[in-house]
Design brief:
This protein is α/β, with parallel strands linked by helices. It has 9 helices and 11 strands. β8, α5 and β9 form a beta-alpha-beta unit. It is globular and about 55 Å long.
Amino acid sequence: AVVSTQSTGTHEAISFLLEKDLIKYVISQNGDGLHTLSGVPKESISELHGNVFEELCEGCGIRYNRAFYTLDDTAGQYFEDIEDYGRSDIKLPSHAKKCERCGNNHRTGRKCGECGKQLIDSIINFGDHLEIEIMGRAEEHAAEADLIISLGSTMAVTPANILVSSNPTARIVICNRQLTEFDSMCEGGRRRMKGCRMFTDCDNMMNSVLRNLLPAAEVEEWERGRTSRMAEYDLKRLVEDTKTNKRASGKEKAKRKKRQKT
């Protein structure tokens, strides 16, 4: 079976506004790669927690953007089993290596075309360090922004959430159905102009933003093109739906745990 991964209306709106030079930079905590799929250039985004469609060489550092999911979930599941149950029915792939920081495997099983060293996924697990260069670009752009928009995040994970409050003069707009620790910043302050707090879906908000910033005819033409863009996304990114590329479900893990106890 083959499944496609497609950008949402919010991802597309951000890319469209970036193209119009109305958004300057994107900082994402998601690892699904949907911003780059929707057309956001790599130089215009910091994917703080990595991208499941990107791998890099653990030797020379060169990056490879793929049309397929890069993680080796078989090796990852092996180390999770060892951590949870002390044993695993899974055979550990020969290329796998336990990460000293997160305790999981980052190696993908492929090798670098430049130096021949092992490739690793770019995902940041709990315990891993954020990539200095990627975080540095995010900090630089956050410090220069006159408006910071937070979409669909409770902003509870550090150090990413610090970026929202790092600029004392930027207006803050937060769109999220849940309360956050940063809501009061939308009210402005001594140096900060008043922003906006919206308890709604991100797609609803971004649709309104488009219609208030751009001519109606231009927005309508862009919306008519969504079907063809979805087809393009399917061609760009097709993910093979196999057991080796999916982490075991909670039900499968429970069954395995029961077998190991007996």
